Give the backbone structure.
Amino acid sequence: MPVERTEHHELFKYYEVYETIGSGGFAKVKLGRHILTGENVAIKIMNKKDLGDDLPRVKVEIEAMKNLSHQHVCRLYQVIETSTQIFMVLEYCPGGELFDYIIAKDRLSEEETRVFFRQIVSAMAYVHSQGYAHRDLKPENLLIDEDHNLKLIDFGLCAKPKGGLGFELKTCCGSPAYAAPELIQGKAYIGSEADVWSMGVLLFALLCGYLPFDDDNCMVLYRKITRGTYENPRWLSPGSVLLLNQMMQMDPKRRLSVRHLLDHPWVMKDYNSPVAWHSRQPLGHIDEDCITEMAVNMKRSRASTTALVKEWRYDQTTATYLLLLSKKQRGKPVRLRLEPAVCEDSCSPLHQGLQTREALHFSEDEDAVIVGSLEFCSDYIDDCPWVSVANNKDMRLASPSVEKKCVYSPTPERGRTTAQHRQERRDRDHGQTSENKENIAVQETDVEIFALPPPRTPASSKKNARANKKVLTTPNQNANVNGTKTNAVTPKGGGSASKEPDKKRAAEFKELANVEILAFSPERRSRSLDMAVTGDSGKKKRGGKVFGSLERGLDKMITMLTPGKKRALRDGPRKIKVQYNVTLTSQTNPDQVLNQILSILPEKNVDFTQKGYTLKCRTWGDFGKVTMAFELEVCLLQRPEVVGIRRQRLKGDAWVYKHLVEDILSTSSI
Ligand code: 6BB
């Protein structure tokens, strides 16, 4: 999706744009930071030409999201439309997809499921109350925010029947595995009833870690759904079995309604209160503190500021108001960055010479990283509250891996060395302003979970932009066993708080560090794999044979290394803290783990490019289309001191990805 500089004018005026965190369909989602509030956002980027017939879907999504404001629905802040692009600026959910959370834990306990499920019921009751059916409910469409609360996303398939939700719909849409039988059969259906079926499938996935109806073959899958029979694994409580049965009723009229779910005994257990589904952020309400701050900043009267906000144009005014409100709700000061005196003119990406192609590159390559204005702000960097703060919690794909990159790429990119990272961190820490500290303090929770990116300084980034360019002009391409182009080991350089009882959940989230060790011990991984295939609890044992063959593989890999490659590996993998998308190994040698994975990928028909310890993996479909894209990064964990593998799905079916990655990691015998 190469994008012209001019097309991003509006975006860069208000946001710093970081790396891609996912893509699907015709959208790419990038991390961003709203310059005026300093708040993180997710930016969904769509190219109108690529959208083609899907353009109406985007319009539907935008219209729906403008009308929805709820604690468990992802908030839309701003829409920027150019002649070729549409940008949706959305609420930031650093916890990623519920899907990844489930697979990281294998499955959730009934208690944890209940916490999430109550939030899902709350969101759906609200969405239905506004006359919408979502029609694409699945764990990939529920994101986890920084307080570990769920946020519903992707309203592209939603419907708002003119006569109300009681009116029938005809379009069959959504993901087949979650689709109600009446949809599959092409019958007219009631949107809210179909949503309840999907919620039943979702509940099953939470409690079991796999789907009730699943098959690679679509027709077989449809038959399973229309038969409506699934197996209840032995660990389900009688209460769970009953609820699932009531939700996955073939006859939509006999299915539970969301209204009945609100105070269902299973849902109420341990809470003794029905689900609170009313919006805590109703659309009409205007917050006076936010208005005051905006009025001061804009040098306008409060009355005219209020009038401007009330237009709800989903422009910079709406975004600033909503993000300020979000700050307030999270206990942060209701403050905007001073402009223009301190650094608007000097630090705004718009004014920072970002016009250079190099600085602005968006590309097909997921790696292309745009880091707002940082490198162009040398004189002001310590004074700009948001510029030097590395509070973007999920920057894993950004600078550290870029520096190690050595793939053929049409895009110029920047890179730095580990030593520079360290120096930059020292510089950053030294020059931190009080506002920086405030920003860091409130994000401590995340620091526990997500690795922070090393900050950038203008000088170092520029220097390395040049250095990295050189690397990119001398790619080292090899062919893998599939005959596809693959880069072998050639790294370069250094290697709204919810009122549901969520405090407890946030603490649990932090404790994931411990849970993970259990969840991803080799035994557990193979159990999960077996479970997915056979439905039993799996007791697969590993023999010494696998280890022997791996050692042979490793030997082969080491022999293949050129001095340059060895140097690259010497700089080592990233050190990160345990997060739930990290699989722990029992090994302490990252190179060994890397080589084990490298030797397995071709066997699994996975094409990859390597950047240091990060493997960017792809699978291809019949028509030369990428069916799946994901990353595997070998990293060092601190507690316990073992090698971990960070996984990140970028594209493709979530469950197919789960099976494939489990397969790779268990075959690698790590
Ligand atoms: C969104 C988001 C909001 O992402 C690929 C698709 C909001 C994503 C996020 C994250 C991880 C880290 C930091 C932020 C609205 N629509 C779509 C959105 C879709 C991608 C999610 C990840 N998988 N925050 N984040 F997901």
Q: What stands out?
A: The pocket of 6BB is lined by residues 21-22, 24, 29, 31, 42, 44, 74, 90, 92-94, 96-97, 143, 153, 394 (CB under 6 Å). The first strand starts at residue 15 and ends at 24. The two ends are 36 Å apart (CA to CA). Residues 594 and 634 are 6 Å apart (CA to CA).
